[in-house]
UniProtKB/TrEMBL annotation, chains A, B:
Its main location: membrane. The keyword Chloroplast does not apply. Keywords: Cell membrane, Membrane, Transmembrane, Transmembrane helix. Residues 36-186 form the Casparian strip membrane protein domain. NCBIfam families: A_tha_TIGR01569. This is CASP-like protein. It is a multi-pass membrane protein. It is found in: Cell membrane. Residues 1-25 are annotated as: Disordered. One of its GO terms (cellular component) is plasma membrane.
């Protein structure tokens, strides 16, 4: 991992602006967590892409009783993620998370060997990670809430179970939701890592 | 607002442990945001309590067609938040957020005039705020997803609208969800504030 003790890099910082304070000689060494950060973001990207692909490929067509007549009162009926606004929101949120992961992987890699920009990037990453966590967590909750109604139904208001008919559709949903829960955990860890790294720099400079 | 430039307080830090580094003479002054932090947490507490009270008092009983017979095929039927697991999760999450807000208000007030503990508290608050944000955002999403099905129904799977019958119940739901969305925004701001305060201390010590 790159260390942030290179004095030359500190001198490169902000041409024209006053030079930042040099590290204190009595300060403890700062461990650089950007390699861990990049690894977590790669996992986040993989989780987001998996989550989107699994839910988008969940289409299932079944031969079920049809309200529109059909043959002997039966007809083909399709279950698709875009039949519910909650799942559309979920796909949009996971796509945003995937795109965000990709951009921040590049940003994190680009400062791996430029210690002078690391503190500023940590601040911005922590800010944005929190926002993306809010979006992904709410999307996971929203899709999970609707999927649970599909799984168990709700006898109080007469909403029927869907998963007993559309088994493949619901398996895809469950898989995608598990992955997005993992993405939420990753985002919490990423934010914690940025905050911890910022905290570790307090007694360094 | 209390300032963290009091050298006596720094010397009180950690009896037995090595004394922390003194502020650099060339460092810019650090603004102390703990008063803002306390104000935001009071708002969060108010939002959480309001959200819980509004959804818990949403019971509504209506004279509707009954599947169990009743008088002329009609009967009284109650809508209550605990008929849906999503709303139960929502109430639990908002209660946790309220309790958390209460505890952290006391913690923030207690360090207002003890600058030596502020950095450590900021770190812990930022860590916990992120967790609570994840919980509240997912609960808001989950309750919102189910409430939306109640409002619009879903013709693809034959889930009927509920809000056309239970108007008061749905108004309470909508009010509570608006408040919890506000709580999510507050939690994002609180995390940002803690992160920003930590960052501001980097060139101070």
């Amino acid at each position: 991992m790159a260390s942030s003790t290179d004095p030359k890099s500190d001198q490169e910082y902000g041409k024209g602006a006053p030079p930042p304070p040099q590290p204190r000689p009595d300060a403890p060494a700062v461990v650089n967590y950007f390699a861990v950060d990049v690894a977590l973001r790669v996992l986040l990207f993989a989780a987001a892409v998996t989550g989107v692909v699994v839910i988008v490929t969940s289409d299932q067509t079944k031969w079920v009783p049809s309200i529109n007549g059909g043959i002997n009162g039966f007809g083909y009926r399709k279950a698709k993620f875009n039949h519910s606004p909650a799942f559309i929101y979920y796909v949009v949120a996971m796509s945003i998370a995937g795109l965000y992961a990709l951009i921040t992987i590049l940003a994190s890699i680009s400062v791996l060997f430029k210690p002078s920009f690391q503190t500023k990037l940590l601040l911005h990453l922590a800010f944005l990670d929190v926002l993306i966590l809010g979006i992904v967590a709410s999307a996971t909750g929203s899709a999970g809430g609707v999927a649970y109604v599909g799984l168990k139904g709700n006898k109080h208001v007469g909403w029927i179970k869907v998963c007993s008919t559309y088994d493949k559709f619901c398996q895809h949903l469950a898989g995608s939701l598990a992955v997005s829960l993992f993405a939420c955990v990753l985002l919490v860890f990423l934010t914690w890592l940025s905050i911890f790294s910022l905290h570790a720099r307090i007694h360094k400079y």
